Write the structure tokens for this entry.
Amino acid sequence: MQFTNIVIMRPFHLAFPVTDLKSTKSFYVDILKCEVGRSSDVWIDFNMFGHQVVAHLVDENNHPASNSVDGDEVPASHFGVVLTMSQWKELKNHLLEQKIEFIIEPKIRFKGEAGEQATMFFKDPSGNALEFKAFNDDNQIFAK
């Protein structure tokens, strides 16, 4: 199967563990001049030069495997790409055909809210968690 060629670069998505949200927010906003998108008491979305990076709070000595996001246990450390909706659906169908085991089944998250998105999580052969997501409107990527 060959996926549709990408004509323009799509925004990258990266989530990473942090041990202090206050200092993390200060660094990314004050030093790197990132804008803050959605956030909770355990994670913060940043707009880093058009890319979505997300800081997930973890315990310094006991890094949890996940944080709760919109009712799902999302791996605190994961990465992926923000696809177009048609690319996301094509990849989803391909993964289903390949019988990939999902950490979080393909679904719509934040339905009817700012940042509504299609998302799915699965692991690579080495156990790295991947998230591929898509928005009907790219202006929603950093919507609050």
Notes: The helical segments are 21-31, 85-97. The chain has one domain: 12-140. The domain at 12-140 is CATH 3.10.180.10 (2,3-Dihydroxybiphenyl 1,2-Dioxygenase; domain 1).
